[in-house]
From TrEMBL:
Keyword terms of this UniProt record: Hydrolase
Species, as recorded: Amycolatopsis iheyensis
Gene Ontology BP annotations: acylglycerol catabolic process
Protein name, per record: Alpha/beta hydrolase
Taxonomy, superkingdom: Bacteria
Xref: InterPro entries: AB_hydrolase_1, AB_hydrolase_fold, AB_hydrolase_sf
Record flagged with keyword Hydrolase: yes
Length: 278
């Protein structure tokens, strides 16, 4: 994992493979770990980029650094410039949807295509626990570590349609433990501002690029109807429901997701085998 220094933050990122650029954006409370196997599977035909947003995963988690949608979109813009990318394909999950949309709609970043899976992108969003934390972030940040760990494990475990493997649950929980991780977990929820999502929805009609929206049919965090509304607001976008998958579509339906990713990226990447199918 390499790092990029931006406004005092340390952004962890990695790159692999060759071919058209594909950038993966994670959400909350996740990290690039969720996208790692999918990026590896595509690296024979694409140059894949993974990054942990500031305040997440292996990136820095300083208390005085803002982590809202606006800051993350600016960080994404700076990172694409650092990588020297122009018009990459973008794949987003959860919070990554709002970040990638804002970077495109507000900051004018051009993409070759955009695939969004179970994204936080338009209002409303947020589970009951998410809303509880947002109302009491300072109190919950002070609970004993063992209680905090139990809360985070229960919260993350609830995101999937299938019961998570212990190894996966441990990997997803780990960044939010310890002296830096625990307060960072509550801080990133407290920073949530739905006005960014309202602004996104107001601008959806301006999008002029290939867009695909995937949604786990069993997503209890953000219902399928929200995904359908998102796709309907984007000119030419297509919507695909994924059976037997919840919000953690990467772990619930990895084969279906991998198939959709490769099919989509092959179709929208000129010169790759399968492009003639467009």
């Amino acid at each position: 994992m390499e790092t990029f220094d931006w406004r005092g933050r340390r952004i962890a990122w990695s790159r692999a493979g060759s071919g058209p650029a594909v950038v993966f954006c994670h959400g909350t409370p996740w990290s690039s770990w969720l996208w790692q196997p999918f990026a590896e599977a595509l690296s024979d035909d694409f140059t894949v980029y993974l990054w942990d947003m500031p305040g997440y995963g292996r990136s820095s988690k300083e208390a005085d650094h803002a982590v809202d949608f606006g800051v993350q979109a600016e960080a994404f813009q700076a990172l694409l410039t650092h990588w020297g990318l122009d018009r990459p394909h973008v794949v987003a999950h959860d919070y990554g949807g709002a970040v990638s949309l804002r970077a495109h709609l507000v900051h004018g970043l051009p993409y070759a295509s955009l695939l969004m899976a179970d994204v936080v992108a338009i209002p409303p969003s947020g589970s009951p626990f998410f809303r509880l934390v947002k109302e009491h972030p300072d109190v919950l940040a002070q609970v004993p570590p063992y209680i905090h760990e139990a809360l985070v494990r229960a919260y993350i475990g609830n995101a999937g349609f299938r019961q998570l493997r212990e190894a996966d649950l441990t990997a997803l929980t780990a960044p939010w433990l310890g002296e830096a991780g625990q307060p960072a977990f509550y801080r990133q929820i407290a920073a949530y501002d739905e006005s960014f999502l309202v602004e996104n929805e107001d601008r959806l009609g301006r999008i002029d690029l290939p867009v695909r929206v995937l949604w786990g049919v069993e997503d209890t965090w953000i219902p399928q109807a929200t995904g359908e509304r998102l796709a309907a607001g984007i000119p030419g976008a297509t919507f695909t429901p994924v059976p037997d998958a919840g919000h953690l579509i990467q772990l619930d339906a990895p084969v279906a997701l991998a198939t959709e990713l490769r099919s989509w990226l092959t179709r929208v990447s000129p010169g790759l085998p399968g492009d003639a199918e467009r």
